[in-house]
Design a protein that fits this description.
The protein starts with 14 loop residues before the first helix and ends in a 6-residue tail after the last helix. The longest helix is centred in the N-terminal third of the chain and has 27 residues. It is built from 4 helices and no strands. By secondary structure, the chain is mainly α.
């Protein structure tokens, strides 16, 4: 007899909708910021501006992964949230330790202080939501 697999809760339902909305808002904000910085003053702080562009890309892909809610979407969102958390912590530490390394701020500078620390909290919430909506234990 084959046991039915427990149902998986959808990542795009309930509080997941708010999480997706925040990811989309940050995708728009980071894309706009990075686009303007890259177009107008890229030579001043190329690493910082490219990191903002990377953050924007991660926010977009994470939102899509959470919205898709299937196996692939969950995996994509898990990877994005994990990379995002490592990135915001690493850039946060580096931006505080060596201010010359980032002559201009990125989305993740000082752990996202320019955005109310939401860039630090968002991947934690994303990972928590992915854990919370995993398959229910049998």
């Amino acid at each position: 007899m084959v046991e039915a697999q427990p149902a998986r809760r959808a990542t795009n339902s309930g509080p997941g909708r708010l999480l997706i909305a925040v990811y989309l808002l940050f995708a728009i904000a980071a894309t706009s910021r990075a686009g303007l910085q890259i177009a107008t003053k890229f030579d001043e702080a190329p690493v910082a501006y490219l990191l903002s562009a990377l953050a924007a890309l991660i926010y977009i892909v994470a939102a899509v992964g959470l919205a898709r809610a299937g196996h692939t979407g969950r995996r994509v969102a898990l990877i994005c949230c994990s990379v995002e958390l490592v990135g915001v912590v690493a850039v946060g530490i580096l931006s505080l330790a060596d201010k010359e390394l980032f002559p201009d701020e990125t989305v993740w500078s000082q752990f996202g202080s320019g955005y109310g620390y939401i860039p630090l909290v968002l991947p934690v919430l994303g990972l928590f939501w992915l854990w919370r909506t995993r398959r229910d234990p049998a």
